[in-house]
Request: fold
Amino acid sequence: MGGRGSSYFNASGNFRINVTDTYKQDEETKKRTRIVEKLVSRNVQVMKSTDKIPDEILTPNLKQLDRIMSKFRQYSNYAEVENLKVRTEKFSNPRIKACFRCKIDSFERPEIIFNKSYEKDNAINVKEQVQKQIDIGYWTKSDKQNLLVHTMTHEMGHYVQRVITQQIAEKRGEIDKRAQNPLKYDDEIAVEMRTKIKKICKQTFKTTGGTSIYGASDPYEFFAETFSEMLTCDSPSNTAKSLEIYLKGEK
Ligand SMILES: [Zn+2]
Reply:
């Protein structure tokens, strides 16, 4: 039996994602592989709902997730963040492959959710589909060996931006201000981040911070698209290099 239907907005609030919402039936996976155990030590729980995703898709994505958590611990105190769950749901829109979901008003229940359609997919097809989006300029680039993890890395960009937004609110004594209107607060911080990243790009590389078509749609997608490129390319664009400078610096 499936869970009751549920719908929520994606990270930037520009479209609804309808899912089956099986959160309450889900539990930690019994497949205790080495990477699953390693992620537990990083406060990441891989859930049973991912069990049917082919290993050739799931394992590289879990390894990339581990790499991201390891990298960003250097910049920020991620250890204190509530458990991140990796799950699947059936999305009504088959074209959406993954999403990041978290409560808006408090940093609870952060989830990286894969579409159940991955269960019937294979690595070659996933890579081809991602390459198509890159070729038309809709998504930022990824090196060939990282095409498989492009989408999840983008979703982790939404997670990281959300964590940093929370940290900024705490540092600036604006927790109450954020609580009054979290969507408005997060929008303002997302715009501020984009402005700062573009400014770094102009000052450091003397170029304007370009992005993909999707990245140009709003400041959240700008961050996630740039984040994905930064972590999936050996030679990322100046915009992606500027994001790394931003992440290492004072916010
Ligand atoms: Zn996104």
Q: What stands out?
A: Residues 11, 154, 158, 221, 224 surround zinc ion (CB under 6 Å). The chain has a mean pLDDT of 90. Residues 6-248 form one domain. The two ends are 46 Å apart (CA to CA).
